[in-house]
Amino acid sequence: MNIRTRIPPSPTGIPHIGNTRTALFNYLFAKHNDGEFILRIEDTDRVRFVPDAEKAILEILNWLEITHGKNIQRQSERIEIYKKYAKELKEKNLSYEDNGAIRFKMPKTGSTKWIDAIGNKNITFENKTQEDFVIIKSDGFPTYNFANVIDDHLMEITHVLRGEEFISSTPKHIQLYKAFGWNIPVFAHLPVILGPDKQKLSKRHGAKSALDYRDDGYLKDALINYMALLGWNPGGDQEIYSVSEMIKIFDLKDINSTSPIFDPVKLDWMNQQYIQSKSNNQLKKLLVDFYPDLSKLPNETTEKLIPLVKSRIKTLKEFKEQTEIFFGTNEKSNLSPTEKRITITLFSKLEKVNDWNNNKIFEILKEVMNQNKIRMNILYKIFTGKERGLPLPETLEILGKEKALSILNQIK
Ligand code: GLU
Question: What distance in angstroms lies between residue 90's CA and the mean position of ligand 1's atoms?
Answer without folding.
Answer: 25
